[in-house]
Design brief:
Blueprint: E1 37-38, H1 47-51, H2 74-78, E2 84-85, H3 89-101
Antiparallel strand pairs: 1-2
This protein binds iron/sulfur cluster (2 copies).
One iron/sulfur cluster is lined by residues 38, 42-48, 62, 79, 81, 83-84.
């Protein structure tokens, strides 16, 4: 028998494979095109343009994206007017699921 067969590794078993966000009915949804929206409180300060790590927010119209959004949330967190937000229900459900499932700190473990 291979030695590796006897190694017990703790964690979230069964391990979750590649995760696809799901809708209320459990059907996989594609959130790749989800992007933050901009409300009327925007003062056009352009801070979101400078903090977006993808350089995706249009400088001429900050409500528009010129590139992809990786859902990092930087523009939402940094906006001084709270003008950026997500409204996509599937994405918000996915975000909530992650917040609930991974709210507890995990200590690092070493396997030698
Ligand atoms: S950071 Fe907020 S207020 Fe400033 S331009 Fe962007 S959305 Fe508008
Ligand atoms: S969430 Fe991140 S990647 Fe998407 S537009 Fe905002 S700053 Fe850019």
């Amino acid at each position: 028998m291979d030695e590796l067969d006897n190694i017990q590794v703790e964690g979230n078993i069964p391990y979750r494979g590649y995760y696809m966000p799901k809708d209320e009915a459990g059907k996989a949804v594609d959130i790749r095109r989800v992007k933050p929206r901009t409300n009327q409180h925007c003062t056009d300060c352009k801070l979101c343009v400078s903090v977006c790590p993808m350089g995706s927010i249009n400088n001429e119209d900050v409500a528009m994206l010129k590139g992809i959004c990786i859902k990092c949330g930087a523009c939402i967190k940094k906006c001084p007017a709270n003008a950026k937000y997500y409204d996509n229900e599937d994405y918000l459900r996915h975000k909530h699921e992650l917040e609930v499932a991974f709210c507890h700190r995990k200590e690092p473990q070493l396997f030698i």
